[in-house]
Amino acid sequence: MKRITIIGGGISGLTVLHYLKQRLGDSADITLFERQPHVGGCIRTLKKGDCVFECGPNCFLDYQPATLQLIEELNLTHLLVEANPNARRRYIQMKGELVAVAMDPVNFIRTPLISGPDKWSLIKGLFKRNISTDRSIYEYVSQRFSQGVAACLVDPLISGIYAGDIKRLHMASAFPKLDSRLRGNDKKWFRRIRMRSFLGGMGQIMETLLSRYQSHIQTNTDISLAQIKTDITIVSTPAYAAARIIGDVNPVLAHLLGQIPYVPIAVVGLGFEHNAFRKKTDGFGFLIPSQEHKDILGVLIESNIFPQRAGLDQVMLRVLLGGAHHPQIINDTKEQILSKAIKEIDTVYGLKAQPLETFVQLWPKAIPQYEMNYPLWRQGIAEQCAQTPDLYLCANYLDGISFNDCINNAKLIAGIIAI
After folding, report:
1. Measured CA angle at 159 (ends 133, 269), to 5 deg
2. Whole-prediction pTM
3. Domains of the chain (ranges plus CATH)?
């Protein structure tokens, strides 16, 4: 019987386990090892009072068939919830004030977020051809549109996805299909895409995977490749952890993995009575451009997006801090992080009362950064993996950081192994 070892119990590792069991059944001895006392990685849902707090991702976009297929196979489809369409309005903070992102032509003309020439550049840029994506996001957007569009619109958007620096992130690696979509070559992308989560939060899918495959999972287990006897190994940990695990077997690969940078993120959840604010907490939330020089990346009004995240007559907010521009957040205590988050909410909405419930989750190495030298790292990693038989890497530092990417890549790797 073939022995297969999976190291890492995040969404990548658990999904690989699911698909291997689905394809191989009992014909292979499959074990997943997780260093922490719980599986799920950064996907974890906590509850306190009537508030539901997501430690990591709070939702996913439903454009990836593999994700919806996995959810169906786990019998979770009936627990899917869709983001409230009434919370579509988004804001960007500009000189301390919230400015609505234009959702129609009239407001696009009126918006003070960008200048008149920048607005014209947005229109002209859609028709530009043959702009190389082998450059930073800032350079790409500046050439296709303008520097103003890059600084005021794209910068806060990237903060909300990568928490990164658009002058350092590699366009082709971070968004491999975006240029094609801008040119209209990917027609399927323009269908209605919905933001989804689960009734009990994103942690519900992790709990289901754990429950189904409990007998194949060992938590509180820290191992290296030199310690185990196995025929096939899939390492589904962050790159820095994979470097330590692989070091004795392939030092060159370990060195490459250790070079991939990560940025820190602090996630703060704040639950309030609905009348605790002097200003209306409407819409989806707001993002903050790096030129505002704040520790805060953005704020999501969770209870507007998913009403299940708070009790009746309550408002649940989620504040993101840190990122590439503010890595010093890892030096703050939880009390300091919480204080910064509450101060920002007070500044923007005006607080009449303190929060009912608070949550703080600090991720010192939260999101891998697909920076300018990432293509060379990616090539080197592929070459070294090819020289290390029966070793596979499956994690969000390869081929996409999103929930959808992790599931799709895990399914592909399981398919290769199960042939």
Report:
1. 155
2. 0.93
3. 2-43+202-260+370-417 (3.50.50.60), 114-190 (1.10.3110.10), 262-368 (3.90.660.20)
